[in-house]
Write a structure and sequence with these properties.
Layout (H helix, E strand, L loop, with lengths): L2 H31 L10 H9 L6 H16 L8
Length: 82
């Protein structure tokens, strides 16, 4: 077995665990602040940034979008796309 492959495997495993834990903590805080998860919005820009790292919206853009979704959520309206 390649020692380089094993090293990269262990790095990936550790990174995945850290990502999972950070995601859990982030989701708990999201529910405290907004009452729902960002994934409930089905907003590809947010999801691609936070789940896949293939987009890169700023926190300011994230927060602006989430405020729109929160207003819709509080008024029992569908999220739509912000």
């Amino acid at each position: 077995m390649s020692t380089e492959l094993e090293k990269l495997f262990n790095m990936r495993k550790k990174s995945a665990r850290q990502n999972f834990e950070a995601g859990q903590e982030f989701d708990r805080e999201m529910n405290k602040v907004y009452g729902f998860s960002y994934s409930d919005t089905d907003d590809d820009f947010i999801i691609d940034t936070l789940d896949y790292g293939i987009n890169s919206i700023s926190f300011e853009t994230f927060e602006a979008k989430m405020k729109i979704y929160k207003e819709r959520f509080d008024n029992d309206k569908p999220f739509g796309l912000a």
